Amino acid sequence: MSVKLITYLLYEIGFAIAVVNECAAGWFGSDCVHQCPGHCKHNDSCNHVSGLCDKGCGYDWKGRFCDIKKFVTFNNGNASQSTTYPGIMYDARYAVDKDVTTCARTEVIGTTSADKSVWWRMDLGEMSIVQRVDISFKNYDGFEMRQRGRFAGFSIYISNNSGIDNGDLCYKSGPVLPFLNISVECFGFGRYVIYYNERFPGEVYPKGFEQSNVHTELCEVSVQENGTSIIVV
């Protein structure tokens, strides 16, 4: 008998003995020759007949057989930004390193600055269906409202190329100052997810919007693509 097959004495009726064959943990099928393909909740074994997870998938997994990983990772070289504040800890990849204590930071924009607009971009590596974008913007003790005023007015584009000119606007922050940790529905199809903000002289901005010395400090950005969270690491 194969080590993958365990035989149990189920019951005895008269002279007849009924025997149930069940696969060892991690195997399934009529002959127990198929290895469980997925990752079941609580590290349980799959159903020995169907191969499915009877109690559902583990936290990081999805799909019929719980064999599709929820978190897809790309090389952090896929993150870029329009400018970078001087220093070794401010480039674009720090917005996608899964550490909210490190942040991408750009040069200032504003009505009195040389730069009037700013962008941060994630290359998904292929055309993708985007559903949601989560952003954590830098906070400083005692300066939350200033930071919300800097964050205010941002847009998110989904684009087939690296610019926003031919991209689709999927979210635009309104006149109310956004919270510094925000999750937005952002439906679109494209390869690039682009964060964009601007401060132009002559424009009338809502109350609370910072208009000069506007740093963009993105501490974490994640994109949900068709049910899968994409994190560049």
TrEMBL record:
Keywords assigned: Signal
Signal peptide (UniProt feature, chain positions): 1-18
Top-level taxon of origin: Eukaryota
Name recorded for this polypeptide: Uncharacterized protein LOC111116526
Origin species: Crassostrea virginica
Gene symbol of the encoding locus: LOC111116526
